[in-house]
Amino acid sequence: MKNSNDTWYDAVIIGAGLTGMYQLYLLRKAGLSVRGFDAAGDVGGTWYWNRYPGCRVDTESYVYCYGFSDELLNEWSWSERFASQPEVLRYLNFAADKMDVRRDFQFNTRVTGARYDEMRNAWTVELEDGDRVTTRYLISATGPLSAAQMPAYDGAASFRGESFHSYYWPRDPSGSTAGETADFTGKRVAVIGTGATGVQIITEVAKSAGELFVFQRTPNWCIPLGNGPLVAAEMDEIKSRYGDILDFCKTTPTSFPYMPINMSALDVSKMERDALFERLYNTPGYGIWLGNYKDTWSSKAANGVVSEFVASKIRERVKDQIVAEKLIPKNHGFGTRRVPMESGYYEVYNQSNVHLVDIKETPIERITQEGIATSAHRYELDVIIYATGFDALTGALDRMEIRGRSGLTLKEAWAADPQTYLGLQIAGFPNFFTLVAAQNGASFCNIAMCSQMQVEWVTDMIRHMQQNGFNHSELSAAAQDGWTAEIKRLLAKTLLGEVDSWFVGVNTNVAGKSERRALVYTGGGPAYRAICAEVAAGGYEGFQLKRTAQSKAAAKD
Question: Which domains are present in the chain?
């Protein structure tokens, strides 16, 4: 099948990260002609781009993996409990080789847009170099945190030193994949931002910088990562029970190896509660966030007691109590935003070469040739690092001009509020699937595990369509309205919906994204999988499946 103006594929996948690679592999295995595109030079997705010092996964390495293949599980051994970026990237390259996906990806190729052609029931995908391809099924696997966002500071281009966003960390000429090769010895360095990325960078840069200035707008609740080596005997033991480990993760709300305690934090004594908090705080990983009393996400009173416990830890670890109070969040409770994991972050502020600048008290007014000017002071700098995050969940799709029926862009369709069904398809955009995106069950989850379920589900749906003579999938308005209402209902039962964060689409660095929107599914992984399974068992109820006469004729061309 080929149109005279462009190349035809049954499916096109945008993104060559963990999700996109698996989707290409499964669709090709199902007999479809598939092409993938990625702006990067190779596979890896976020792990290809993020090479800053200290970058590492905050999920236990052994569950941040492809669980579908015993070969991949048994042949790879992780060296650390929480793997560094270079090791994660090596793993993804190893998996890409095993799945042999590179031959069907086109790298260094950015997708700039896609337009749905109703007459042909096909998508024309436009590439940055002016080429285009046509496909029946368009699948985005761009990841939730891939649209890097720079703040709009006056004078940013005038700075004479080095400056860059953490996502675009300068590549080492030697070909190293590790940001740790950067040398800040004796330099005056600024890091703007104290989210998960900023926390990792700050901890590493503080080790060698002459002076480090941390520009903080909003502090976050950070907890110890507890990283350490995974020796061969430990890895062998994990491999011996891999099936049980992964099966357990599928039963937990977020597919991390933590199950919330099925009781209220307020039903036990302070002594008992604090003993649990102490144990969880000192246990590697997200235990104190994801394995705590079940109501710490839904009750302000329960959340208050765990917030005060973590605040007390910050006060213990930071010697200057004025600085400690600046590092304790006052506008949100523990766990209501993403919780950064750290390895000695708070102790950094005990160093004489590290200075915390509260830019709510003294806002940044502009970037100068010499450094940063706030309302109170001018800082002379050699390096400015923007750890200012991402336009999360919707940003990567917003930056492409995706036009559905009647030329409506996805950005226009989502201007007021994103609406989807299962977070996988949008009304008015036939045959377009969105993986690990707004309102689906892989965005507030261990992405490695949850995205695999979505990839397998989409593959099964496309296979079902082929087997039953369908080539067109479009949502009913009722299905979309119902799912969007359910997303909002579930979010309202938690404290997450009451706090500004990327979970609810708030990004003050992005115009038009200051209002809270329902972007994440908070009903838990088991419930989401059960819903998806029920939809599939019912013949994909909510999806209007049909065979279009126009496309049948076009397919003969």
Answer: 7-43+101-147+392-554 (3.50.50.60), 258-336 (no CATH)
